[in-house]
Write a structure and sequence with these properties.
6-stranded mixed beta sheet, 33% strand, 4-stranded antiparallel beta sheet, 13 strands, elongated, 208 residues, 20% helix
Length: 208
């Protein structure tokens, strides 16, 4: 799961009523420290899943808090030059009405999405930031849902670090220990040496 820095907003819908509007993710924006590394989304990473998946609009990622879905036309997701934006028509339900009040008051302001990095060696790339900090770049991903969330937190993900362990053929426990000691940059080796992308499916579930 990820939470963006941008706020979800309540806007008038062209077809009448209201809609929740936000960015599920933004391109090229480095995340906060996710446990010894940072992450960013490459432009176009979500294009395929947007075309092919019947994505859901959920509040707090809960299937019980359904707000809309692409298959019904009540959720619209598209990538632009900024990132992956979404619009969810406000449902005339107790959840929809209550959430509209909370968003309008600013009590709920985060946007988030869940995804899997896919594409084998093409899906994830480990490198470094300009400051030499470990960077995990998502090149291709498969999403499940987008929508407003309550807590814009940044918990680390052990699952994401498995891709680095696989890339360097290291015991996973060693990578976890390096992350705790902020030594992940050492595992990436020589900063002048190109870093091969991870060759495994990585499931990520955390906030942006």
């Amino acid at each position: 799961m990820r939470v963006t820095a941008g706020q979800v907003e309540l806007r008038d819908s062209p077809s009448g009523g209201k809609m929740f509007v936000g960015y599920a993710y933004r391109f090229g924006v480095e995340s906060a420290n996710l446990g010894g590394f940072v992450e960013r989304i490459r432009p176009g990473a979500g294009a395929k899943t947007i075309r092919e998946q019947d994505l859901r609009g959920l509040f707090n990622h809960s299937p019980d808090n359904l707000l809309g879905r692409m298959g019904a036309g009540t959720l619209r997701v598209a990538e632009d030059q900024m990132g992956g934006g979404y619009q969810i028509d406000q449902p005339d339900t107790s959840l929809g009405r209550d959430l509209a009040v909370l968003v309008a008051r600013g009590d709920v302001y985060g946007s988030s999405f869940t995804f899997q990095a896919v594409g084998g060696q093409r899906g994830v790339n480990w490198s470094r930031t300009e400051r030499g900090f470990p960077l995990r770049e998502i090149v291709q991903m498969k999403m499940r849902d987008v929508g407003p969330v309550t807590f814009p937190a940044y918990p680390s993900s052990d699952v994401a670090l498995r891709s680095l362990a696989e890339m360097r053929s290291l015991p996973f426990e060693e990578v976890i220990a390096a992350a705790a000691d902020e030594r992940l940059a050492e595992l990436l080796g020589d900063p002048e040496e190109p870093v091969k992308p991870a060759a495994m499916l990585v499931k990520v579930k955390r906030y942006w």
